[in-house]
Amino acid sequence: MQGRAGPDHQALARVVGDHLIVLHSAVRACAGYSRHDAPSIEMDGSSMARDTEHGRAVTAQLTRRHGTLEEAIESGAFALGVAGVSKGIRRQARAACEDYFYNRLSLTPGDELGGPEEIEEGLELMPDGMYRALEGIVELVVDGEYGELRAVSRDRLAIEDLRRRIEDDCPESLVLPPREIYRVEAITKSDDPQTPGWAYFLELWTETGPARLHIEGELEESGERYTATLDDILP
Q1: pLDDT of residue 195
Q2: I need a labelling partner for 216 at 20 to 30 A (CA). Which of 20, 40, 113, 144 fits?
């Protein structure tokens, strides 16, 4: 199923940048998990703006327990309800999540979440130009430069929404990640001729490993230079 999520035409999708129905940070340590395969749904707006469909969903999701896989799936379904997604689509979303985690990954509802994460080794590093462009945005997040983050979002993200997400929703002491974290797995080439470039999905970092938050956005190439824009900061 594919399509945009709106009042009359929500649909499940699997595209980088869509709303992952189960919080990525809750389940990323599960054996076999891949954000590329996990069920997702397109939703309108930034996850940080509480007056948008996407914002209502993530705001609600952050209030729920994620101690077990069952709780994480239940939280995802609850959040879609708060966002106003129809019951029929919510049932499909829950069924897709249960099929993915329980059948495809052979996990169980009672599996506890939040365990140590294994960082895959040997993956190819992204080119230096891409790395430098993304490191610049990560540095703005780490330093709390919300005005500049708004600018690199092309003024789509509000300063107060950025501050709330980083300081209140998911407060952590963020640091610049090591160079080896900037790998090609974090970027996806666009197949839309109208919007050439790459989408990125990059974990933020703490002194002990991956942070709860990650950043999403786009990379555009101009000659040998890359420009990164910020679309959202999500758990």
Answers
A1: 67
A2: 113
